[in-house]
Amino acid sequence: MSRYTEGPEIRDAKAPAGPIEERWEKRKFSAKLVNPANKRKLTVIVVGTGLAGGSAAATLGELGYNVKSFCYQDTPRRAHSIAAQGGINAAKNYRGDGDSIYRLFYDTVKGGDFRARESNVYRLAQVSVNIIDQAVAQGVPFAREYGGLLDTRSFGGAQVSRTFYARGQTGQQLLLGAYQALERQIAAGTVTMHTRHEMLDVIVADGRARGIIVRDMVTGEIERHLADAVVLATGGYGNVFFLSTNAKGCNTTAIWRAHERGAYFANPCYTQIHPTCIPVSGEYQSKLTLMSESLRNDGRVWVPLRKNDTRAPGDIPDDERDYYLERIYPAFGNLVPRDIASRAAKNVCDEGRGVGPGGLGVYLDFRDAINRLGRDAVEKKYGNLFEMYERITGENPYDVPMRIYPAVHYTMGGLWVDYDLQSTIPGLFVIGEANFSDHGANRLGASALMQGLADGYFVLPTTIGDYLAAGPFGDVDDEAIAEAEIKVRNKIDRLLSVNGTRTPDSFHRELGKLMWDYCGMERTEESLRKALERIPELREEFWQNVKVTGTSEELNQVLERAGRVADFFDLAELMCLDALVRTESCGGHFRAESQDADGEALRDDENFAHVSAWEFSPSGEPVLHKETLEYEYVKMTQRSYK
Amino acid sequence: MNLTLRVWRQSGPSDDGRMVTYKVEDVSPDMSFLEMLDVLNERLILEGDDPIAFDHDCREGICGMCGMVINGVAHGEQRATTTCQLHMRHFEDGATITIEPWRAAPFPVVKDLVVDRSAFDRIIQAGGFVSVPAGSAPDAHSVPVRKEDADAAFDAATCIGCGACVAACPNGSASLFTAAKITHLSLLPQGQPERLSRAKAMVDQMDVEGFGGCTNTGECTAVCPKGIPLETIARMNSDYLKANAK
């Protein structure tokens, strides 16, 4: 699939005009309201129960809508937002250190390497302050100072202290807040919860999203659920790489199948590689574990100065160590943004100076922090992370430096949405990591939680009202429902009928390796063309030779995995195509052909200051629609952290 | 490492279930327990057998989805560890390992090692929240919270809802789970207005679900991956009594 056509540009993403600080206020006022008595006659489906989906379903329930919520796990509290460690940004300026809504906006636009929409990012920064208020009121136990006020820290390349945190478990605590709000609405009868259900298609009738087809993962029953609007909050697609920091169940099926129904997919090639993960230890590896990048506040990153230095780290004297981040980026040192830190680690490993098995690792050393602050202070700050590291690797980071290596962590790309978070299918809204809108080509640390909750608690509940004000939309065309249901059943039957000789996981692993090698931290025209040649071959083999045991009428985890892998193949192809077409480097997308004299990513603003929104085409030749990005407030500059 | 596994197999709720023995070879000590089962499952699929169903998701010890009774201990013998974070280096080469699902009447088996823990959600529905609709919150700094209270609330709030406490309890009690949430919210000023009604509603729901009572055996806290302390149960009982005395 290296062929595509170009369609008309997207001219209007529906952000109001005028001064940026007034746009969200304007939109809130111009959005039509739904009469309270009418709300319960309007049904909204929310798929996914992470920070975005959980908070959206709870809030829509509070507003009085009739909500149906779905998740594939056994309870909504398991969604992978729970694994976020570091924190959540908010422009509270409680420290008086010069932070402001404008500065958070500025940092996020710059951090996203000028590939995000200014209007959206400004709104995100505005709403960030409400999120902290909401979470505290719910009883989220953020870290506090002795005076009883909230503690904050500087995080992931920010020079102000705007990150609120709950030890290393911020995502868990925020998710439990949203989950509890959701359970409260379930008890109140405004939300009906469907756990262990997987969404397999969107029902589009008369040009509107009107429902979803799901599979009950316990009984295997294929069910239809109808609504006046559908919200997808199904997370990112990092598991296309097989190995990532995502949960095992994270997948692209919901957004991919919506894409097949007409929702544009924006910037699929923007993937975030997180610099501080525990390196791969063997062939059987099932996932990668992230170590919070807050560790970079006190840990120092280094590799031996010499190639193939096999001495134990403690035996390498300081003058034979290369603290390469501090050397190359003296202003930011170990705190450079994620994309920069990851690529620097790859570079030193490519030079043969990596450590650990296979030379795919760098040290993250706490020796100096322990000497400076004392072991107790380090333990207080990072104790649970150190324990986690030791549990997985069997090594004690108080004595031996941690070994870390970059791993796929987050996907900035996702379904295209307008300012109202509505996709190109009317009535289909997309929130959280599943959409593309706020992080540009690179997400800053502690911004994912912020965006998920901003979308779910504050943005979507307002904007969806404007759409629903025209509803209820009446009966749904039977044929549209039947067609979607048949499509789903056919796909399942096809997977079960192959009865080949390879497991879904073995295909997934091979696809992931291919994506990591050819469409990973560094991409070239050659590598991407290779991937685009190889993916269709592997997909063909998958459909000829996959083995799915059991039946569709039972709990069948092999069938679940096979369906997801099938969609990953199609997505992988689009990712590579998007990466091939975008010949510039920006944020998490590094094209080796586009770098400056120092080896830093070189943007091409003249040709690529746009969102690439892909329209699905059954012919296999997707249609590219560009949305030009304009920067009225933050002047486009080459990012420099030196 | 070479191991013998004895695994509980049960095709569905109506099946009686049985222990089935499998040999696994060439297990790396660096594998996680679930990765060891992945390897076995890959083999079973290729042999045309039904692989062992088990719940898991994050594999980082935080989502609470995984959970098996390993050699008679919920999540295995290593303390403060979920099944997914248990690594094979803690087992001896040649060992026989027995793997069973959580066993408690309110957690019916769905298939093999997968159980239904929705009873926990219903306990939270009964009152495990602060009633504060989105948009209605005052500024976060308007109510200072003593650091000691915030820290203690956090300790209780780390519960991941895995259900190991129930599986370990001879009475099949959900007291530790319920008490953790009650303690978390009752230590914070935000949780005060609903404090007593919350305790009463949640404890009553625990009874409705068929969980047993607490007799202070402490098995729950011993297996809890997050080390939720037993004192939370005393706090729950205290609030429950106060609520009933009103």
TrEMBL record, chain A:
<dbReference type="InterPro" id="IPR003953">
    <property type="entry name" value="FAD-dep_OxRdtase_2_FAD-bd"/>
</dbReference>
<dbReference type="GO" id="GO:0033765">
    <property type="term" value="F:steroid dehydrogenase activity, acting on the CH-CH group of donors"/>
</dbReference>
<dbReference type="InterPro" id="IPR027477">
    <property type="entry name" value="Succ_DH/fumarate_Rdtase_cat_sf"/>
</dbReference>
<dbReference type="GO" id="GO:0008177">
    <property type="term" value="F:succinate dehydrogenase (quinone) activity"/>
</dbReference>
<dbReference type="InterPro" id="IPR036188">
    <property type="entry name" value="FAD/NAD-bd_sf"/>
</dbReference>
<keyword id="KW-0560">Oxidoreductase</keyword>
<dbReference type="InterPro" id="IPR030664">
    <property type="entry name" value="SdhA/FrdA/AprA"/>
</dbReference>
<dbReference type="GO" id="GO:0050660">
    <property type="term" value="F:flavin adenine dinucleotide binding"/>
</dbReference>
<dbReference type="Pfam" id="PF02910">
    <property type="entry name" value="Succ_DH_flav_C"/>
</dbReference>
<feature type="domain" description="Fumarate reductase/succinate dehydrogenase flavoprotein-like C-terminal">
    <location>
        <begin position="508"/>
        <end position="641"/>
    </location>
</feature>
<protein>
    <recommendedName>
        <fullName>succinate dehydrogenase</fullName>
        <ecNumber>1.3.5.1</ecNumber>
    </recommendedName>
</protein>
<dbReference type="GO" id="GO:0009055">
    <property type="term" value="F:electron transfer activity"/>
</dbReference>
<keyword id="KW-1003">Cell membrane</keyword>
<dbReference type="InterPro" id="IPR015939">
    <property type="entry name" value="Fum_Rdtase/Succ_DH_flav-like_C"/>
</dbReference>
<feature type="domain" description="FAD-dependent oxidoreductase 2 FAD-binding">
    <location>
        <begin position="44"/>
        <end position="449"/>
    </location>
</feature>
<keyword id="KW-0274">FAD</keyword>
<dbReference type="GO" id="GO:0005886">
    <property type="term" value="C:plasma membrane"/>
</dbReference>
<dbReference type="InterPro" id="IPR037099">
    <property type="entry name" value="Fum_R/Succ_DH_flav-like_C_sf"/>
</dbReference>
<dbReference type="GO" id="GO:0009061">
    <property type="term" value="P:anaerobic respiration"/>
</dbReference>
<keyword id="KW-0285">Flavoprotein</keyword>
<dbReference type="InterPro" id="IPR011280">
    <property type="entry name" value="Succ_DH/Fum_Rdt_flav_su"/>
</dbReference>
<keyword id="KW-0249">Electron transport</keyword>
UniProtKB/TrEMBL annotation, chain B:
<dbReference type="InterPro" id="IPR050573">
    <property type="entry name" value="SDH/FRD_Iron-Sulfur"/>
</dbReference>
<dbReference type="InterPro" id="IPR006058">
    <property type="entry name" value="2Fe2S_fd_BS"/>
</dbReference>
<dbReference type="Pfam" id="PF13085">
    <property type="entry name" value="Fer2_3"/>
</dbReference>
<keyword id="KW-0411">Iron-sulfur</keyword>
<dbReference type="InterPro" id="IPR025192">
    <property type="entry name" value="Succ_DH/fum_Rdtase_N"/>
</dbReference>
<protein>
    <submittedName>
        <fullName>Succinate dehydrogenase/fumarate reductase iron-sulfur subunit</fullName>
    </submittedName>
</protein>
<dbReference type="InterPro" id="IPR017900">
    <property type="entry name" value="4Fe4S_Fe_S_CS"/>
</dbReference>
<dbReference type="GO" id="GO:0009055">
    <property type="term" value="F:electron transfer activity"/>
</dbReference>
<dbReference type="InterPro" id="IPR017896">
    <property type="entry name" value="4Fe4S_Fe-S-bd"/>
</dbReference>
<dbReference type="GO" id="GO:0046872">
    <property type="term" value="F:metal ion binding"/>
</dbReference>
<dbReference type="GO" id="GO:0051537">
    <property type="term" value="F:2 iron, 2 sulfur cluster binding"/>
</dbReference>
<dbReference type="InterPro" id="IPR012675">
    <property type="entry name" value="Beta-grasp_dom_sf"/>
</dbReference>
<feature type="domain" description="2Fe-2S ferredoxin-type">
    <location>
        <begin position="18"/>
        <end position="103"/>
    </location>
</feature>
<keyword id="KW-0408">Iron</keyword>
<dbReference type="InterPro" id="IPR036010">
    <property type="entry name" value="2Fe-2S_ferredoxin-like_sf"/>
</dbReference>
<comment type="similarity">
    <text>Belongs to the succinate dehydrogenase/fumarate reductase iron-sulfur protein family.</text>
</comment>
<dbReference type="GO" id="GO:0009060">
    <property type="term" value="P:aerobic respiration"/>
</dbReference>
<dbReference type="InterPro" id="IPR009051">
    <property type="entry name" value="Helical_ferredxn"/>
</dbReference>
<keyword id="KW-0479">Metal-binding</keyword>
<dbReference type="GO" id="GO:0022904">
    <property type="term" value="P:respiratory electron transport chain"/>
</dbReference>
<feature type="domain" description="4Fe-4S ferredoxin-type">
    <location>
        <begin position="150"/>
        <end position="179"/>
    </location>
</feature>
<dbReference type="Pfam" id="PF12838">
    <property type="entry name" value="Fer4_7"/>
</dbReference>
